[in-house]
Amino acid sequence: MEIYINENKADITLDTEKILNDVLTGIENEITNSGAKIISINVDGENLNSKNFDDFAQKNIDEVNELRISSVYREEINLSFKNIKAAIEGIEENLSNISINLQTGKDSQVNKTIVDFADIFDAFCQTVTIFSAFPDEFNATKIEDKSILDFLTEFSPLLNDFMDAFEQKDTVMLGDLSEYEILPRLSQIKEFCSKF
Questions:
Q1: Sign (positive/negative) of CA torsion 5, 9, 10, 12?
Q2: Is the pTM value of this prediction over 0.70?
């Protein structure tokens, strides 16, 4: 069995391990002791999840050709949140000027701002997902007075409205949503990211 950790081939000698779970337990202990967390496990091209984990865990190690594990350090999450904060600061003014830019024919600048915002929000959601690998901290962390998941659940319909307004070229709705709904929540995300 070939073992890769974060895309690097690991120099691991198997001794008494009989089933995949034995190998995973040993690797998880080492990764956890180094201050990181496992965020994904792939066995022979198939990602493990809560539904198939038990079946794979009981496999004899002779039946497994390749094991790929991805892990993340807490510091990497902090850095990602800091980068998101900086990116938000870079587009706040453009978001606040969407109405003016639309009225003055600067459609390409508006398009770029919306794409930049979508990229930032996507990066935030991905980082939040990885952050959830540290459940004690994740569950204790709030955006304003809400859990991260509650905040995102409330934000989601506004994002849909924002994208609908953009696709329909509804400049009034786009400007209003940008200024009164998106920007304030983006400021809350920025404040949240500044904690890391």
A1: positive
A2: yes
